Amino acid sequence: MTAADEGTEVSTTPDHEARSRSDDLLPLLISLDATLTEMSGVLARISGQLEACSAPACAAKREARLSPQEMRVARLLAEGHSNRVIARRLSLSENTVKAHLRVIYRKLGVATRAGAAVAVVRQSSGTGSATAPGTGLRLRAEERDGSAS
Question: What is the Cα–Cα distance from 70 to 86, expressed in whole angstroms?
Answer without folding.
Answer: 11
